[in-house]
Design brief:
0% strand, mainly alpha
């Protein structure tokens, strides 16, 4: 039994390095970029008029619709639509690209609401004070609001990142040979499904534990800076 466990380990680690980690990093990076853009669209209410006002309202509706769609449907279904469904209309994507798109859009939808909530939690007096000092809206947002919102949003976004690590196992359903699919292949070969699934679960747990320790460190550093600002 241990021979099977040890023989599968290099392949599982290879799949982790080749697919699980890159999928997580790329998807989270693109997801956060999408999330920040969507959150700002829904958060900001610029004083515009005429056609610009109509376009801004339309943009906000589209942002809300995007968030609603990806928060209201299962991630697995989203991956299937992107990889298996889009070829029906002539859009055929490589499995890895489809997975990154699916995970990024899903992450962006959830993270955008987290970021928007963090922005809303910053006291409105901060805006008034900045405007009194002559700051523009972009400068106020970048220099004053965003740093405070970052400290608030760090824990939930860290949890989102850790959750994404586990969600990458769904990439196996669209033919990506990440850790979970490799474990399935070994289970089919050696008829030891319990052993293989426990092994891959242990690797996911190890990776998530490392990230949890890093999250705790970042939160501690952020909290220390916050306390320093208050003094």
């Amino acid at each position: 039994m241990w021979d099977i466990f040890i023989s599968a380990l290099p392949k599982l680690l290879e799949a982790m390095v080749k697919y699980t980690i890159p999928l997580t990093l790329l998807s989270f990076t693109f997801g956060i970029i999408i999330a920040v853009i969507v959150a700002l669209i829904k958060f900001l209410n610029p004083k515009v008029s005429g056609i610009v006002s109509i376009l801004w309202k339309l943009l906000r509706l589209l942002a809300s619709f995007y968030v609603w769609v990806f928060r209201s449907t299962p991630l697995l279904v989203q991956l299937f639509i992107i990889f298996f469904g889009l070829p029906a209309i002539g859009v055929k994507l490589p499995a890895f690209t489809a997975a990154v798109i699916g995970f990024s859009l899903n992450t962006g939808a959830y993270a955008s609401e987290t970021i928007r909530s963090a922005l809303l939690s910053v006291n409105k007096d901060q805006w008034d004070a900045a405007y009194t000092l002559g700051f523009s809206t972009p400068k106020t947002l970048w220099k004053i609001i965003m740093p405070q919102a970052f400290r608030i949003v760090l824990p939930p976004l860290s949890n989102e990142f850790i959750g994404l690590v586990k969600d990458t196992s769904l990439a196996s359903t669209i033919t990506i040979a990440e850790m979970f699919q490799i474990s399935q292949q070994y289970a089919a070969q050696n008829y030891e499904p319990l052993l293989m699934y426990v092994e891959v679960a242990a690797l996911y747990a190890m990776l998530c534990t490392i990230l949890s320790v890093l999250q705790h460190y970042l939160e501690k550093k952020s909290s220390r800076y916050m306390k320093g600002d208050e003094n």
